[in-house]
Amino acid sequence: MTDLIQMTYRDALKEAMREALRRDETAVIMGEEVGVWGGTYAVTRGLYDEFGAHRVIDTPIAEMGIIGVATGAAMGGMKPIAEIMTINFALVAIDQIVNNTAKIHSMFGGTMRAPVVIRTTAGWGQLAATHSQSFEAWFAYVPGLIVVMPSTAYDAKGLLTTAMYSQNPVIFIEHTRLYGEKGELPKGEFRVPFGVADVKRQGKDLTIVTYSRMTHVALNAAKDLAQQGIEVEVVDVRSLRPLDWATIMNSVRKTHRALVLTEDWMTFGVSGEIAARIAHDAFDYLDAPVERMTQAEVPLPYAPNLEKMAFPDEAKVFAKIKEMLA
Amino acid sequence: MVTSTNPAVSVTSRAAPPITREMGLHWLEQMMLIRRFEEAAEYAYTQKKIGGFLHLYIGEESIAVGAVAAMQPDDDIFTHYRDHGWVLARGVDPKPSMAELYGKATGLVKGKGGSMHFASVEHHMWGGYAIVGGHIPLAAGMAFSHQYLKRDRIAFCVMGEGATNIGMFHEALNMAALWKLPAVFLVENNQYGMGTAVERASAVANIYEKATAYHMPATQIDGNDIELVYNTIFEFADRARRGEGPQLVEAMTYRFRGHSMGDPQRYRSKEEVEQRRPNDPLNRWETKLLERAWTTEDEIKQLFARVDAQVAQAVQFAEDSPFPDARELYTDILVEE
What we know:
The structure holds 2 protein chains of 2 kinds. By secondary structure, chain A is α/β, with parallel strands linked by helices.
């Protein structure tokens, strides 16, 4: 057994970047406030001092430019990490991501590669309508991209390391409310593969399919439910594209019930895709319709009580599962 | 047309090597090849052998040919979707080029790109891009990699004047100037963004003046004068190559065909197009070569015959080539790893 250490999600990400910048001279970090400031969420803090301004590059507030330049540099043989401060601002760059980054390889018949890692973060906290959104479905929709959303320090580091070795463009979506969460992980370099879900808790009565911060909500609810003798299995998909359908289906075939729990909106969101596939692929094994729990379908308001109401939480998941098993 | 240069231009650049008779004839042949290639493509389109959009470069050939002549072979080019001329000027074989238009497996990019996405990485031709302005930051990124990896290469970004009104142009120019990237932005001003005349779309009539906002050396030239294109691009590229930062050249030109196929051209009169005919860059260069006694009518006929044979072979190659295998639908989406 290798030595395990405690580390925050934030530091795990930083460590993956530090290792990448040490071993690969073509690797750079570029984005708004990644350098002198140390990252808006302090993820890159210290890297500017360690690697210098030519490798941890502060950019203008210009998301199309950041993604375009990073993609072009990747085509030129570099391994850029482009940080988009939050996923809300990724919309400003969506043409670059969808029409260039995702298409460079396929559109030119496989003759080019654009292995850029686009790090961004989801999250909320009284930031109101434009700064609190979940847009993972927008990117997971696009062939040509890898989309990952880690929930733990271990997965964050392992997936980011895999991204840094990948020849494909990766949309790496962190979560602002997870940065301070501690987790256990091995010392030194390790990888978590894309497209492999992680069963974060074993159970027999119901499967929660989830990812990112909602994994923790699911695990907390599962702990409470266990006290009442209800054993919930929690599948953290970790990657949205590619998505590990086999692990989801194996779990549902065992538990016969599924709740898809996400932080994005329901209509045309990630939960719809997962629910549809379960309903089809595990049809004969289901004892009840697949259920979904997501963010309330509203532009997020500022007021703290309203904001809290908009998201699934442990109590809501608890109640929902009781209802599903009633 | 007047050549005007903005005050930011430095005077340190070196002049281009003189144009020899051999170069002059080669340029003529390249312009002929592009012209005949596109005329053949136009015909094949009417025969429904080519689908989608087909944006012809006819009337603008002197820019690609003159500019490529001023580049180093390993300089990188990013262009817009009116890209056939750029690829052929770069020395890419017309056979896989025509096959790409036909959507065949032997095409430049295996029939997956078509007219708007010609590319050949071995020729440092990084492709035609079809979202107006979307490729400008990519070219800046390529220039960034040259600077970072200390490579003696520069990146050329070719765009239409219509692309200078979109945000990506300004973000890329700002970043390129901020970081002194080795890039040359080449604006082909053919007077119309689809059917909208420059003055109806741009608050600034002289596009090159937009570069002054970024303290970027820039100039406006007659793009149909191939010698001027060659000399100007060499000079501007030289400055970018020697670390003086990005440069911008606006080459004035005119497209003789519609925006794409099936353009009724309601936005301009037949008279206007006819008035531009004497400015055809191919004819102008032909006349100049004859005036200098660098060639003869007979030699020009022979060149045309050679080019016609080459284009006929390209068409035959495209006709004879197979469509991509059905399995190709699912290849190249991601790099397998």
